Amino acid sequence: MTDLLTLNPLTPLHETVRRPLYTETTTSQALYLPIAPPTLGTAGAVIGRELYSGKAFIYCPFSAFGDGLPGGNAIVMGDTGRGKSALTKTYTARQIRLGRKVVVLDTKEQKEREEGEWAALGRSLTGKAPIKFTPGGGCDASCINPMDPAIAGKRQIELVRTIVELGLGRALDEFAGSALRLAIRRAHQRANDAGRTPVLADVAAALRAPEESDATAKQRTRDELLNDGLEASYVLDRLCGTDQDATGDLIGILDGPTSLGVDLDADMVVFDLTKVPSGGVAMTILVAVIAVFLEEVWLRPVCECGTEPSQHERQIVDVNSGAWELGPNPESGCRRYTQRKRILVCEEAWHILGTPQLASLLEKFLKFARGYGLSCIFIVHHLSDIDDSPETQAALKMADTIIVYSMKKSEAEDTVRRLGLPGWTAEHITRLRRGIALWVVGEVIYPGVQHLLTEAEQHLCFSSGSMADLTNTSPDPE
């Protein structure tokens, strides 16, 4: 073996060879932070390499779960153009090859393409266009119906009440809530008699024309029941419009039957929200409806073999207690029920985390992600974009993986303070180069993880076309 101490300091070999580092105790290992973090195993999606050890960096919250990683939720942050979106896009694409399902809430528009920046990746993986929402509708616009039969009865009542309360800006009292429940039931009945699916306008109409029998059942007069629900009917009119007024916030988005193009069975489903005004009531309500729609349809339990739990045999694992687990499915040849894993990506997530009502709605996804087999990924620029509301802080605390790209000093210090990271990481974050991030996985810190892309991925992940020079043949992806 070549003795490194005898090398000529000016030779090229000296410039590239590192001296071997020997450690024998955990104390001495702690002195050399770059070599202390353990690997995350060999199962999962390849991210790139860990710079200080030179090892490949492989990450999968489903494979690492239980081994120092309590859950699969993650938050990705950093200045513009440092590599956040490129990382998330390639990571989800590589996870799809491992059999995962992905849904993206895309609020980041590429002006030159007039669509969200995830549209190209979604088409390349599934051949399907994104589910695009446009206020007022249009030829390519999609619609989701909160009254769709795919949403269970009780859950549907809760959803419509949430829509009304978000539009109203406050909670409904008991009288208004009771009138709304009755109107939803009547809307279903009247629509079924007409041979169609009910929509929100049917609920508004039922609120303005209550049945005498419903009033009697609630020990109210018909006029009293009408007054109970009148304000809620006005809110739905303002949101969904009427025959005389087509200026509602939700027209073309939530006011009609669910579009045939809304297919949640694809490997990647992209909801393009780029045309919906951010921070407005329409965005808040739309994300709330999508969240419930995903919970009721997309997150239904299903095995990785594609069959439902009921098609798998029960196997007793403890005779004394009667405890059992789902075993094989003879028809599909599956040997054991394994919950299909899913990933939910929220691009420009300050739209969601910065709104207490939305943060509270998605808190259920975060809190019960393990039961769903779900990993939620939120992409933001800085934590300063997000308020300090209890709902937002609760969502941040449930992020088990934190990925931080380069930031300015003030933002880095604020991030370290709010996330409770060690003090040395603030200065370190400001020094990170493009494409390199600090990862915190559970309790373990990886100071420098370099994300690597293939040539094909660079074209699909490039999101800075408006700023790129035409002479630049190898643009750096965002």
Automatic annotation (TrEMBL):
<dbReference type="InterPro" id="IPR027417">
    <property type="entry name" value="P-loop_NTPase"/>
</dbReference>
<protein>
    <submittedName>
        <fullName>ATP/GTP-binding protein</fullName>
    </submittedName>
</protein>
